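Structural biology now treats backbone shape like a language. To illustrate, our science desk offers a sequence and the tokens encoding its fold:
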Amino acid sequence: MDTWSNPQAKAIAASLLDLDELEDDVITAEEMSDEETDQGPRLEEVECQLSPIQEYATSIVFAPTLDNGLYLVGAGVRKKSVIKVYAVAMYSTPKVLLAANTHASLHDAARTFDATSSMTSFVLEMVYSAGAEKIAGAIAESVKPRYDGAAIDIGRLESLIVEGVNGIGGQAIKGTTFRFDCSGEGVSVSVNGVEQGVAAFDGLGSAFVDVFMDGNSVSPTLKDSCIKTWSMDENKSTATTLVELSNLAGESDLEGSTENKPDKVAIRRDLEAQLRRIQEYATNVMFDPKLDEGLYLIGAGVRKKSVVKVYAVAVYSSAFVLNSASSTTALRNAARTFDASTPTTSFVLEMVYSASAEKIGGAIADSVKPRYSGSATDIGTLESLIVEGVIKKGGQASKGTTFRFDCSEEGVTVSVDGSVQGVADFAGMGSAFVDVFLDDDAVSPTLVSSCMDTWSNPQAKAIAVSLLDLDELEDDVITAEEMSDEETDQGPRLEEVESQLSPIQEYATSIEFAPTLDNG
């Protein structure tokens, strides 16, 4: 009572209890793994009860599961008149299996993508030979009337199929397989097991499901097979068990299951593959669609002094800024406001007219000066970084010399011909530099026009939206590594508290006892 009744000791005791409770709240990655291992055998037992389905008209057999944990719902045939074109199987989540009691409920469950049912996949196996354009065109024509987006989105889906078939010789012969993974992000296309890419457009995944599951399905036998297979009492029971196991897995997984979700890295790679270089028309200088930091090319223009073309200039920034290129004001505000969504806006300049170090450094500094509210000496620092960079390459910014200015909340980082010179690290300077090129008195009006033109067409808008969605999804994820960092951060605090504990000397015997044992 005496030891722990004084205020300091009580405070230490309270801190130790708080730390114990925090540690109890943490489910470590190792514990999560153990839970999944315990659950594994039961899931395997249930899955071993599932059977393959032989499509009766073509005799093609489909396996009961796909590698990403989706389950075979049913199989049917696609006919044109009396010709059997391909056999088709649908795979989806346990939630969809359980919904296969009516055509309407099955359709709704398969096309509605959420945390409990993130993907529905279709596997097609050809039984009739068709050229790349013919099979791709037929599938695209089926999706088109069911999709509310731009026709160019359907063109993207069609091109992925064509490219895949061309990769195997241009003919989808008997035995060729197609796989279409439909999700909220779009449709991923594979041909003979080789992924071709993702048509990443909102609503396209649901439209593709509709091709096979709506009231005008291209394969009525597929729908009938799904209902017949999962309306049997034994299979209903299996579906219920799989749903329960799926729910348990979802509760124990802090990051969310990745098995049934599209590969975001692959989706981003495919989106970025659709981006195009921009050739600045007055100078013919070409700019790449992305910088190495993941900044995207928004537009390109020219800087003139009278009739002299001095340099071509491009602006790169985040997906958020791409989505803001609906008006010049929105574009400027997004590009100059630095936060988590847009930490950096960069400008790349390529000289088309030779200028000395002092002349080009002074010209850029003079453009920033009236837009910057800080000290004139700050502008001098920016100017000296440019001058020093040009002097290092001989003192002349000759044709082809490149400058890069990375603007952020911290200031402006200056690079010359790929070599970083330093940072003019002054608050507000990054935004002032953006204003040089994007405000109402921009030194390159053609740059502003290019930004608006590039990102105003429907396809570009769709890409910009998809890139922004991916950024937001990635921001929401708390990884196991981050959890581990939190635990590591907590460690020193425990040591600090324990260092305040004192040994106790038993007064009658003078024997002293240490404040902790080695097991905590």
Summary: Residues 72 and 307 are 68 Å apart (CA to CA).
